[in-house]
C-alpha cells in the first residue's frame, strides 16, 4: 500500500470569506439529479487527458479542505472565534485548477479551461454512493437505529476486519484503528485491517442498491483470505431475497510477478490458500453463496474454468497493473447494464494506469467516481464525533515530538483518548463506475 505522491500537483489550503452551499441532506434523490451531479463531476475532472490522476488530486484537495474545516471546528469548540470557511485548491500543470470548499462538508468546483468554463459545483459526498456512505448507522448525524439487516452485516464486517472484542477499535466510530499492512502477511485468521472499513461500507451500499434492480452475482478478483468477499456475501444474505452468489477469483498463491510494479513487493504477497476463504465463509455459515475460481486472471480467459455469466457487481482488488487490467478484461462483459465496477487500489500507480487503459480501450465514458474509504471525512458528524475527529486531525498535523508527548500523556491517563482516524490518506483508494445501458 504505497501512497501516491502528487508530484506534478500543488495542493494549497487557504482561508476564504464566502460561504459554500451545503448540499441538502435526507430524502431520496431522483436518478436524474444523481446523473446531473455525476455529470458535474465529469465536467470537473473526468473529460481530460489525465482524468484518473485528477480524480485522486481532487480527492486529495477535498481532504485537505476537510482537515482544515474540522480543525477550525475544534478551535471554535474551544472558544476561539471560528475562522472563515476554508477551501483547498489543486493546481495542474496546464494552468487549470480545482477548488474544494469545506463547510462541514465539501464542494468541488472546477473550472477546466477546455471546454469553456462553466459553473460546476458538486459535493463528492453527493455523487452516486456518497451520501449513502454518510447515512450508514454509526456514521450519520441523525443517529438512526440500524436495521436488523444492517446489524447482521455489521457483525460480519467485524469478523472480516478481525475485531477481537478487546476494545482495540470499534467499528462505529468509538475507537481506533491500529494494525495495517504488516498484519496481512501473518497467518492469523483475520483478513483485513481497520483501514478497509470504508471499502466494506461502499460494497454494502452498492449491493443494497443493486439487488433492487440489477441482475447478476457479485465477483471479486483478488480475494486473499476472503474478507471483502465475505462481507459481499453477508450483504447479499441481508438484502437479496434470491440466491445470488459471490465469485472469488484468485491465484490463491499470491500476486504473480507479472509487472515491474509488483517487483517492489515481497514474493508471493498475499499468498493464502483457497481453504482459508472457505473457512472464513464457514465461520458465518455462508459457504453456499461462495464459488471460487483459481488461476491468474490473464490465463482464465481461454481456460475452461467456470466463470460467472452475469454480474451485478464486479470488484477488482489485484493491486497490480496487469492483474487489474486482466481482471477487467476477463469479467467486464459479464457486468449487467447499470451494474457497478469497483476498483480498489486506485491510489497505486499501476492500478490507476490499468483503469485508464481499460476505459480507453473500451471507450468507457461513465464517470469514474471516488469514494472516501478510510474514514468519512466529508460526512457531517454530531458534535461529539466532530470533536474527536478534529482532535485527531490536529494530532496528525502536529510535529512528531508533540505527537510523542501526547501519546505519553494518553498512556498515563486513566481514560485513554479515542482516536478515530488513522494517518489521513490524500487519495481515493476506491473508485467505481456504473456501466451504461
Ligand atoms: C490485496 S489482495 C486482495 C485483498 C482482498 N480483497 C481482501 O478482501 O482481503 C490481492 C489479491 O490479488 C490476487 N492477485 C493479484 N494479481 C492476480 C492475478 N493476476 N491473477 C489472480 N490473482 C491475482 C493475489 O493473489 C491476492 O490474493
Automatic annotation (TrEMBL):
<protein>
    <recommendedName>
        <fullName>Macrocin O-methyltransferase</fullName>
    </recommendedName>
</protein>
<dbReference type="Pfam" id="PF05711">
    <property type="entry name" value="TylF"/>
</dbReference>
<feature type="signal peptide">
    <location>
        <begin position="1"/>
        <end position="20"/>
    </location>
</feature>
<dbReference type="InterPro" id="IPR029063">
    <property type="entry name" value="SAM-dependent_MTases_sf"/>
</dbReference>
<keyword id="KW-0732">Signal</keyword>
<dbReference type="InterPro" id="IPR008884">
    <property type="entry name" value="TylF_MeTrfase"/>
</dbReference>
Amino acid at each position: 500500500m504505497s501512497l501516491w505522491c502528487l508530484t506534478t500537483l500543488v495542493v494549497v489550503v487557504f482561508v476564504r470569506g464566502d460561504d459554500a452551499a451545503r448540499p441538502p441532506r435526507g430524502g431520496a434523490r431522483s436518478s436524474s439529479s444523481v446523473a446531473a451531479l455525476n455529470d458535474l463531476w465529469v465536467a470537473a475532472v473526468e473529460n481530460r487527458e489525465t482524468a484518473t490522476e485528477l480524480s485522486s488530486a481532487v480527492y486529495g484537495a477535498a481532504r485537505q479542505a476537510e482537515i482544515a474545516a474540522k480543525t477550525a471546528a475544534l478551535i471554535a469548540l474551544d472558544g476561539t472565534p471560528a475562522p472563515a470557511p476554508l477551501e483547498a485548491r489543486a493546481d495542474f500543470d496546464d494552468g487549470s485548477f480545482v477548488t474544494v470548499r469545506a463547510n462541514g462538508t465539501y464542494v468541488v468546483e472546477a473550472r477546466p479551461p477546455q471546454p469553456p468554463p462553466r459553473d460546476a459545483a458538486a459535493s463528492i459526498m453527493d455523487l452516486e454512493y456518497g451520501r449513502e456512505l454518510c447515512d450508514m448507522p454509526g456514521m450519520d448525524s441523525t443517529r438512526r437505529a440500524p436495521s436488523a439487516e444492517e446489524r447482521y452485516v455489521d457483525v460480519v464486517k467485524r469478523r472480516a476486519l478481525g475485531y477481537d472484542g478487546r476494545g482495540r477499535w470499534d467499528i462505529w466510530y468509538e475507537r481506533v484503528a491500529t494494525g495495517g499492512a504488516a498484519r496481512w502477511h501473518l497467518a492469523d485468521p483475520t483478513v483485513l485491517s481497520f483501514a478497509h472499513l470504508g471499502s466494506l461500507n461502499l460494497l454494502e451500499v452498492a449491493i443494497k442498491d443493486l439487488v433492487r434492480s440489477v441482475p447478476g452475482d457479485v465477483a471479486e478478483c483478488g480475494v486473499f483470505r476472503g474478507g471483502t468477499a465475505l462481507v459481499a456475501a453477508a450483504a447479499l444474505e441481508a438484502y437479496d431475497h434470491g440466491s445470488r452468489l459471490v465469485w472469488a477469483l484468485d491465484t490463491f498463491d499470491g500476486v504473480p510477478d507479472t509487472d515491474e510494479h509488483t517487483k517492489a513487493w515481497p514474493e508471493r504477497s498475499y499468498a493464502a490458500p483457497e481453504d482459508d476463504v472457505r473457512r472464513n465463509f464457514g465461520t458465518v455459515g455462508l459457504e453456499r453463496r461462495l464459488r471460487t475460481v483459481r488461476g491468474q486472471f490473464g490465463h482464465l480467459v481461454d481456460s475452461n474454468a467456470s466463470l460467472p455469466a452475469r454480474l451485478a457487481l464486479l470488484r477488482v482488488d489485484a493491486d497490480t497493473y496487469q492483474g487489474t487490467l486482466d481482471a477487467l478484461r476477463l469479467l467486464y462483459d459479464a457486468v449487467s447494464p447499470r451494474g457497478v465496477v469497483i476498483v480498489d487500489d486506485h491510489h497505486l500507480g499501476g492500478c490507476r494506469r490499468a483503469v485508464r487503459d481499460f476505459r480507453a480501450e473500451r471507450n468507457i465514458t461513465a464517470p469514474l467516481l471516488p469514494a472516501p474509504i478510510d474514514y468519512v471525512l466529508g460526512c457531517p458528524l454530531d458534535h461529539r464525533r466532530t470533536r474527536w475527529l478534529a482532535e485527531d486531525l490536529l494530532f496528525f498535523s502536529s510535529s512528531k515530538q508533540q505527537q510523542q508527548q501526547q501519546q505519553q500523556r494518553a498512556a498515563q491517563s486513566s481514560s485513554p483518548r479515542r482516536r478515530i482516524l488513522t494517518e489521513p490518506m490524500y487519495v481515493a483508494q476506491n473508485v467505481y463506475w456504473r456501466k451504461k445501458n
